[in-house]
Write a structure and sequence with these properties.
The protein is α+β, with helices and mostly antiparallel strands and 216 residues long. It has a single domain, classed as Phosphatase 2c, domain 1 (4-Layer Sandwich), CATH 3.60.40. 29% of the residues lie in helices and 29% in strands. The strands form two sheets. It has a five-stranded antiparallel sheet. A five-stranded antiparallel sheet has the order 2-3-4-5-8. Helix 1 crosses helix 2. It is globular. The two termini are 17 Å apart.
Length: 216
């Protein structure tokens, strides 16, 4: 695992988390509150607490997110909402079960082929409606395969002329040989983003994590 978090201001509405679950499973989270600054950071802290509390007794990502949505909708007194991607990873088998509440799709990078696939999953952001239904999908990582999760602050990083870095450039960065470690993938992507943006100020919070199954 490797991760990076960059706040556009002193505090952020983005967050990621790795949660130790029962049966040697791990919960992997990335989320983006629909705002920046102090209000988003406070809402983010509440979301993280509710997600951790809900995940401990559940191994279904969809069920966990739907429970968090109920708690958020009942307890929140703001108009904020949050997109979340939540995955449950089994290190022993390489299986990843995931669900998305309106978040950017993860990228699956097949290590030996350098093929990049968007892992789409339909869902609505948490905190918008009292009850939601979310999809749940599963994949198995092979040796050298990586999963890349990110917030839109990565693909929407802008130059001074407001041109965005974009999803296509992310795909291209992830496809380039040779195979990289999880940390090297993050460093490579950030280097290309920084070169593209140049001297323009950071326009949004940026978060990214990479899960990689090491080659046999």
């Amino acid at each position: 695992m490797a991760a990076v978090w960059r706040a556009a201001r002193q505090v952020s509405g983005d967050f990621y988390d790795f949660i130790r679950l029962k049966e040697d499973l791990w919960g992997l989270v990335i989320a983006d509150v629909a705002d920046k600054g102090v209000p988003a950071a406070l809402f983010m802290a509440m979301c993280r607490t509710l997600l951790r509390a809900s995940a401990i007794s559940r191994t279904s990502p969809a069920a966990t997110l739907m429970r968090v949505n109920e708690l958020l909708f009942n307890d929140s007194r703001t108009d904020l909402f949050v997109t979340v991607l939540y995955a449950v990873w089994d290190p022993g088998t390489g299986e990843v079960v995931y669900s998305s509440a309106g978040h950017n799709p993860m990228m699956l990078v097949r290590g030996r082929k350098q093929k990049v696939t968007e892992m789409r999953s339909k869902g609505i952001a948490l905190g918008v409606l009292p009850r939601i239904a979310l999809e749940e999908h599963r994949i198995t990582l092979g040796p050298g395969d990586s999963l890349v999760a990110y917030t839109d602050g990565l693909t929407e990083a802008m130059r001074i002329n407001y041109e965005e870095w974009g999803v296509d450039r992310l795909h291209a960065a992830l496809r380039q040989p040779p195979p990289y470690s999880a940390e090297q993938i993050i460093n490579k992507v950030l280097s290309e983003v920084d070169e593209f943006v140049g001297d323009a100020p950071q326009s949004d919070d940026l978060t990214m994590w990479v899960l990689q199954r090491t080659a046999d």
